[in-house]
Write a structure and sequence with these properties.
The complex is a heterodimer of chains A (about 300) and B (about 375). Chain A is mainly α and about 300 residues long. Chain A has one domain (about 1-290): ABC transporter involved in vitamin B12 uptake, BtuC, CATH 1.10.3470. In chain A, about 70% of the residues lie in helices and about 0% in strands. Chain A contains 14 helices and 2 strands; from the N terminus they run αααααβαβαααααααα. Chain A has helices at about 1-5, 10-40, 50-65, 70-90, 100-115, 140-145, 150-170, 170-180, 180-185, 190-215, 230-240, 245-265, 275-280, 280-290; strands at about 130, 145-150. The radius of gyration of chain A is 20 Å and the shape is globular. With about 375 residues, chain B is mainly α. Chain B has a domain at about 75-310. In chain B, about 75% of the residues lie in helices and about 0% in strands. Chain B starts with 5 loop residues before the first helix and ends with a helix. Classes of the chains: A mainly alpha (about 300), B mainly alpha (about 375).
């Protein structure tokens, strides 16, 4: 224990939580940005949990066989967009419910990833590099806390870009109008279904990349217990963020911190309540949903066509 | 009001037959399509589809041993299927059966410890009641949150499910751990005398009967009582139900709780009849497979029984695929996922004939509106 806390004692906990928050938040950030795009178009894809696992498996496999983790990231994104395409196409059929299709895609993605990922459990694939922003410090804690992964930076940049694009580009306008009112979109000559399919494909791509982060950076291996609900938490997080990309970023960091609390305390030698601490993100998500939602009133900022908030 | 001429009658009558059959024919057709897609998948990973299907059949229904194996798995699936289907009547999509099952198992084990010394029948009843109550509370919470806070019940039930599983793991490996259980952390065993026994002459425990009885009761209540009627009314049109004087809030929370009770009961039975103690082995995916069971049965409690046996059979044959063909045990998950996606997609075919039937009679404004909206 003294070894871990080193010279800075209990300060190691907040520092480890900060470093952990950035690490743990990355998949939340990528998946929630993707889901944000999808939900802006008026559809919800609950299947991102399955897409995340599928992306983790595909990314790991592609990195292993190609030798390049970046090829893994791209492969994970492509597999994710294929699942997004499936969701987008099926939900465009009459009478097909997007929430139910999402649940089925969650099961299909999980099953396929476990099946195809069986031979990937043992071998070690090349990992994504990290950028050492803590080079100025002598303290190993600070150095390790500031090992920032590139996908987090991409996610932050994407949040800023999306924030701008939703408001100031024609593409963003089209997405928002399709999500707010089908009739208005038709009146303006926007094609509703292709827009939604594209939004779901993009959401799937980002969720796949989020999965690649899990298997190629942190925790950095492929196994069947890799994701336990990060995908669904990210979906809930979009509601909390009220469909705003920048708020997705802050919310992801908050969740990353909650998720990093367990491992950080464990590293300090506190092992009791391990499972309860690991359940902290779920409790936090639920608490935040309870605080954000309200009966008989639409959540401000919610896309008007979203079945999730229409009762 | 309208005098039907013979030509219209001839058009309506066969359609009416098709309408009543489409609830069976479309899911069956979807199942066939799903099998075909799975065959393509199996072929593309280098296995023979025919051999896989033969082993699936053999592992599920090929011998009395595999039948027993299938029925053992069908028993919790009936209950976790009900955990989805009962709330669905009130218009909810609940997917948190796994966590309710885990907590049902935990509380059943606690009840067995608390009731130690009582006659087995009382201990068993206490376990089942404790499991059902905690399940009802857990999923009822999702219904309550939907009503009083507007929180989406699908997401909240899944989050609660993860929390429930974490609670089970915490207590099983922490405060309630039996020091004697080293490799497989468990609560104290409930004792052989308190185990729920097998059906006479079979290797299948009485849980199957309990599950089937629950499904029959749910079916009867939904179909033949005012309770069932009120529930469907609430699910179909909450505002109209409110106007009709129904307390919609209570009905929604009640439906969620009834579903949760079924899932909790499944967990209690797993402890009382299979595991003999609460441990993480009860978290075996029955809750998630129950979602598939309910959707495949089109949320009909009676249909849940055969569908649970079918899905239980698919699950049971996973081991055989693994042993004979060296296929991963996730093969059955792939098949289930494909079946699920295809069955939901087939919903698009539902009601086509009904729509045409109504159009044959002078179109009401509602039908005309629906037609306008879909073009």
């Amino acid at each position: 224990m003294t070894d871990v806390s080193g010279g800075i004692g209990w300060w190691g906990v907040p520092l480890a939580v900060l470093g952990g928050a950035i690490r743990v938040s990355t998949p939340f950030l990528l998946v929630s940005l993707g889901e944000c795009i999808t939900e802006k178009s008026g559809r919800i894809n609950l299947g991102l949990e399955g897409v995340l696992i599928m992306g983790a498996m595909a990314g790991y496999g592609a990195s292993l066989y190609s030798g390049s983790p970046w090829i893994g990231v791209v492969a994970a994104g492509l597999v994710g967009s294929m699942f997004g395409l499936l969701h987008g196409l099926l939900c465009s059929l009459r009478r097909v419910n997007d929430i139910a299709i999402g649940i089925s895609i969650m099961m299909l993605g999980t099953g396929l990833a476990f099946f195809l990922g069986k031979p990937l459990v043992q071998p070690q694939a090349p990992m994504l590099p990290s950028i050492p922003f803590g080079f100025w410090s002598d303290s190993p804690q600070i150095q390790s806390a500031l090992q920032i992964n590139p996908l987090f930076l991409i996610g932050v940049a994407l949040a800023v870009i999306l924030h701008f694009a939703f408001r100031h580009t024609r593409w963003g306008l089209q997405l928002r109008i399709v999500g707010d009112s089908e009739d208005a979109a038709r009146a303006l000559g926007f094609s509703v279904i292709p827009t939604r399919i594209m939004a779901t494909v993009t959401g799937g791509f980002l969720a796949g990349v989020g999965g690649a982060f899990l298997s190629l950076y942190y925790p950095g291996s492929w196994n069947e217990g890799l994701s336990s609900g990060q995908g669904i938490i990210a979906v809930a997080l979009v509601i909390f963020a009220r469909w705003e990309p920048m708020r997705c970023l802050w919310a992801s960091l908050l969740f990353g911190g909650a998720g990093a609390l367990g491992p950080a305390l464990q590293a300090m030698g506190i092992t009791s309540g391990y499972y309860l601490l690991n359940a902290a993100p779920y409790v936090l998500t639920l608490g935040i949903l309870i605080a954000t939602c309200a009966p008989n009133r639409k959540i401000s900022g919610a896309p008007g066509e979203l079945s999730l908030v229409r009762q | 009001m309208l005098i039907l001429n013979e030509a219209i009658m001839a058009k309506i009558l066969p359609n009416r037959f098709i309408v009543s059959m489409e609830g069976i024919l479309i899911p069956l057709g979807a199942l066939l399509v799903a099998m075909l897609l799975f065959a393509v998948f199996v072929f593309s990973v280098g296995q023979s589809p025919l051999e896989v299907f033969y082993l699936l059949y053999k592992g599920a229904f090929g011998s009395s041993f595999s039948w027993q194996n299938t029925l053992l798995r069908a028993s919790p699936l009936i209950l976790t299927g009900l955990a989805v289907a009962i709330p669905a009547q009130a218009g909810m999509v609940i997917i948190g059966g796994e966590g309710a099952l885990a907590l049902g198992a935990l509380l059943a084990a606690v009840a067995a410890i608390a009731l130690a010394g009582f006659p087995p029948l009382i201990v068993q009843a206490g376990m089942l009641i404790a499991g059902a109550l905690i399940g009802a509370f857990w999923i009822g919470l999702s219904g309550w949150l939907r009503n009083y806070r507007g929180v989406n019940e699908t997401i909240s039930s899944l989050l609660l499910s993860y929390i429930g599983i974490a609670l089970l793991n915490h207590f099983v490996e922490g405060p309630l751990k039996d020091p004697a259980s080293l490799n497989k952390p468990s609560t104290q065993p409930i004792g052989d005398a308190n185990m729920i026994g097998n059906l006479p002459g079979l290797d299948v425990h009485y849980g199957l009967v309990i599950g089937a009885a629950c499904a029959l009761i749910a079916w009867f209540v939904l179909k033949f009582t005012t309770t069932g009627f009120a529930l469907k009314l609430v699910g179909g049109n909450p505002r109209a139900s409110q106007m009709a004087g129904l307390r919609v809030n209570l009905w929604i929370v009640g439906a969620a709780a009834a579903g949760g009770a079924a899932a909790g009961l499944a967990g209690a039975i797993e402890v009382a009849a299979v595991q003999g103690a609460a441990n993480s082995a009860v978290v075996a995916g029955y809750g998630y497979a129950g979602i598939l069971v309910a959707f495949l049965a089109r949320q009909n409690p009676l249909a849940i029984i055969p569908v649970a046996i079918l899905i239980g059979g698919i699950n049971a044959s996973g081991g055989m695929l693994q042993r004979r063909l060296d296929m991963p045990d996730a093969s059955v998950l792939v098949l289930q996922g494909i079946v699920f996606v295809v069955i939901l997609t087939s919903d698009t075919l539902m009601g086509r004939y009904r729509a045409r039937k109504q159009l044959a009679v002078p179109a009401t404004s509602k039908v005309a509106m629906a037609g306008g909206a879909t073009t």
